[in-house]
Design brief:
Oligomer: single chain
Largest sheet: 6 strands, mixed
Structural class: mainly beta
Radius of gyration: 56 Å
Helix content: under 10%
Strand order of the largest sheet: 8-10-12-17-16-15
Distance between the termini: 135 Å
Strand content: 35-45%
Number of strands: 63
Length: about 800
């Protein structure tokens, strides 16, 4: 079995003993105030089982009050309950009785809901004032743990209406919130379900509880102005014995409780009710009263029991500053507000109930006056527009012209005339359909019943609502389906078309004037369509222009639908050209004429526009002077100057006359081989005949701007070969094999000593030259060996002698030349 509290005030005990079976003891924890004080109902005290076992329900109550480490909701019994501190974020609701709450470190974030919601009052036809009221007043306490002093606490006013007090422990996440601690009147003297035979019911609250008005008129003189049962905590107690009343605690913390600043009433003799500044309660008796109101009066609440009553506005108030509105659950209260920086209001209870207790006249200081009927007319006009309205009539004879829109008119008591106007309009009547008769009187539909006679025109439907909320519908005019015609709109290529619903509905006809609504869009051609955030959005296909369409469906108030078409003319807009094929980087040597034609497929235009090309550097600056672009042939041409070496970023731009696009490529200008120059002119030489002569060309005699390695050759001045007796030897270079174009007679091997190992030999497809032909004396750094060779081109694989093998490295340079053979 499991146990839980139920009911609006948790006054019931529910016992569940299977998945679907339960029994509820109603008002098990309700509390009765009677002649002996406050007592719990406690209808049941014991549960008895078939085996004879008994369970005392007081044990259940104790279990329900035990909190664990989680987030619990603990509800008091209605008597004097104690709520122990525990971990978790708990909700603690003490209900009636002198309850004690605890708050310690580690208690989590708790919420106290302290009121007397479960307190009921029963009487045996006696006046309430004869009961021991002083025994009913409850004192609720909040006790702080031993480790908490007042200085350890911080306070904050919180809640939707800033009426809750939140208490924190400094440097801790623990807190406890007391709901309505700043608004003790929230629970003013709550004694519900009163036997109204003994007390004037008009002086009680909506639930039969004692109102502040009743208390102030009948009980305050005997028991004081303090409420019997104030919301929140009355005593704050610390471990060192320090104790504060709620007023002392409010003063020490620094907050102010909300109170009504005045209660003024008259009796059957009438009088003047003038609350002045402050939050006042003004209650008129059955006499003729004058009620004062104006700027600086703050917010007053007025009720009246009868007589001829007048509200007089002070001299600062004009009619244009007064704002009227309906208030209360049934809309029978009148709220009057004055325009201005500070809020000034007067709430007149039941002013619109037509029960004889309203204020009859409203008078300005300039002598202008208006009646309650004038105010009702103003309120009706405020609720009527040319769209769908909800209009609530008054308990009198009303004339309502609802105008356009699918309106709902709630008729109340009285003989009303209602013109629904255009649209599908509904009149709502109180009572069962069988209690009314519906007849025709010319153009009017006449409805007679318990709420009076209603003359209706342009009303399509009646709804009868009984006291249990059950509805019965009577259709006066058969619904005719709406007509959705073809709508036409224009848009632009690649632009979304956004239509308001009203744009489409302007193409709709409804014979009933029922103002159909748009329910869907679909079947888009050459695009897509959705209803998004209350608008219709059509997105055409990319780059599409021409005719597109979609369908829209509407529904009237009677549920009938129709579908129409939307034809769209989408005009072309200029599309930007695009790069279809990127340009390829180019290169050219300096001083060499260069040209490049931009490929025809580089750019494209979906509109088919002719494109004009232009060229510049990438940063938009002009091309260098040596480079030209011919827009007709789409060709770049020019000759880079000598020594103009580097990279140009060239931009080609294609334009259709409105929009353009660009692409870039790199033109690399490479250096060319410049001819060497004579740096040091050679001087003429002379020698005697038959004398050996040697001359070495000085280093630096020739220079090269490109720093290339220079190879020297020697000829006669006319370009012919040197004479046979004159030999020009090149500097030796590794791996060099020299051939003479003519058939040589001799092979000369020039050998030079190098560092490093011997890496290779010279190979040939011809017979080997015998090693013995190499002289063993070849140990010098430079040696010439003269060998006789056969006629014609000849190559040799030279096998080196052992003495040459011992050298670190031999670099062989071969030169074939015609020279006489010298033996030995």
């Amino acid at each position: 079995m499991s146990f839980s509290r139920s009911g609006e005030q948790y006054q019931n005990l529910t016992i569940t003993y299977s998945a679907t079976d339960s029994v509820t003891i109603v008002n098990q924890y309700a509390v009765i105030a009677n002649f002996v004080g406050v007592q719990s109902e406690s209808y049941a005290s014991t549960i008895k089982f078939s085996d004879g076992t008994k369970l005392d329900l007081s044990e259940v109550e104790a279990d329900l009050m035990v909190s664990g480490y989680g987030d619990d909701t603990l509800i008091g019994s209605g008597g004097a309950d104690t709520f122990a501190a525990s971990a978790g974020n708990d909700v603690l609701q003490g209900l009636h009785g002198d309850d004690t709450y605890h708050f310690n470190s580690g208690a989590g974030e708790d919420l106290i809901l302290e009121n007397s919601a479960n307190l009921r009052y029963q009487t045996s036809h006696v006046e309430f004032g004869e009961l021991p009221v002083d025994t009913y007043r409850e004192i609720d306490k909040l006790e702080f743990g031993a480790d908490i002093s007042f200085e350890d606490l911080e306070f904050e006013v919180v809640g939707e209406n800033s009426t809750d007090l939140k208490i924190y422990i400094k440097n801790s996440s623990d807190s406890i919130t007391i709901k309505d601690q700043l608004n003790p009147q929230e629970n003013w003297g709550r004694l519900s379900e009163v036997n109204i035979d003994a007390i004037n019911a008009d002086e009680l609250g909506p639930n039969g509880e004692i109102s502040k008005a009743y208390w102030m008129k009948n009980l305050a003189s005997s028991f004081g102005v303090e409420a019997l049962f104030s919301s929140g905590i009355e005593r704050f107690i610390f471990a060192d014995g320090t104790e504060y009343t709620r007023q002392e605690f409010a003063t020490k913390v620094g907050y102010t409780e909300q109170t009504s600043e005045g209660f003024i009433f008259t009796d059957e003799n009438g009088g003047t009710l003038d609350g002045g500044a402050g939050e006042d309660v003004l209650e008129g008796g059955t006499g003729n009263d004058i009620i004062k109101f104006g700027e600086g009066y703050d917010n007053d609440v007025v009720s009246d029991d009868g007589g001829w009553d007048t509200i007089e506005f002070n001299g600062d108030v004009s009619f244009g500053e007064i704002v009227f509105s309906r208030s209360g659950d049934d809309g029978n209260d009148l709220l009057i507000e004055l325009a201005g920086v500070a809020r000034n209001s007067m709430l007149i209870k039941d002013q619109l109930a037509d029960n004889g207790k309203e204020v009859e006249l409203f008078k300005l200081a300039n002598g202008t006056y208006f009646t309650n009927k004038d105010i009702e007319t103003i309120l009706l006009s405020q609720s009527i527009t040319d769209t769908a309205d909800t209009i609530v009539a008054f308990n009198g004879d009303d004339h309502i012209e609802a105008r356009n829109g699918d309106d709902e008119i709630e008729a109340r008591r009285g003989n009303d005339t209602v013109d629904g106007g255009a649209g599908t309009d509904t009149v709502i009547l109180k009572g069962k359909k069988a209690e009314y008769t519906v007849t025709q009187d010319g153009t009017y539909t006449v409805v007679d019943g318990p709420s009076g006679t209603k003359k209706l025109i342009n009303v399509e439907k009646l709804v009868f609502v009984d006291n249990d909320g059950n509805e019965e519908v009577s259709v006066l005019v058969a619904n005719i389906a709406p007509e959705a015609t073809t709508a036409q709109f224009t848009s632009l290529e690649d632009h979304n078309l956004v239509l308001f619903v009203s744009d489409l509905l302007s193409y709709v006809n409804d014979p009933d004037g029922a103002n159909p609504e748009l329910v869907s869009v679909s079947n888009a051609v050459n695009g897509s369509v959705v209803i998004d955030a209350g608008v219709v959005k059509f997105v055409p296909l990319q780059d599409f222009y021409g005719t597109a369409q979609f369908e829209y469906t509407i529904r009237d108030a009677g549920g009938l639908e129709a579908t129409g078409s939307v034809q769209l003319t989408i005009s072309a807009v200029n599309d930007q050209p695009v790069v279809a094929s990127v340009l390829v980087d180019q290169s050219t040597p300096e001083s060499v004429a260069w040209n490049y034609t931009v490929p025809a497929e580089t750019f494209s235009d979906i509109d088919g526009d002719s494109l004009v090309l232009a060229a510049s550097l990438e940063d938009g600056t002009p091309l260098p002077t040596w480079l030209t672009f011919d827009a007709v042939t789409q060709t770049l041409f020019g000759t880079p100057p000598q020594d103009f070496v580097g990279t140009l970023d060239i931009q080609i731009t294609a334009s259709d006359g409105t929009a353009e696009v660009s692409d870039t490529f790199e033109l690399t200008v490479a250096a060319t081989n410049d001819a060497p120059v004579v740096a040091v002119a050679q001087q003429d030489k002379s020698i005697a005949e038959d004398t050996e002569w040697t001359y070495t060309i000085p280093t630096g005699a020739f220079t090269d701007e490109n720093d290339d390695t220079l190879t020297l050759t020697a000829t006669l001045a006319d370009g012919s070969d040197l004479p046979d007796w004159l030999l020009f030897l090149q500097p030796l270079r590794p791996s060099q094999v020299c051939r003479h174009k003519t058939s040589p007679e001799h092979l000369i091997l020039n050998l030079r000593r190098q560092t490093g190992p011997l890496k290779s030999q010279i190979f040939s497809n011809y017979p080997s030259l015998q090693p013995t032909m190499l002289r063993q004396l070849l140990l010098l750094s430079r040696t010439s060996l003269f060998l006789k060779t056969p006629p014609g081109p000849t190559q040799y694989r030279v096998a080196l002698s052992p003495i040459l093998m011992e050298m670190s490295c031999l670099i062989v340079q071969c030169k074939l030349m015609a020279r006489p053979y010298h033996s030995g």
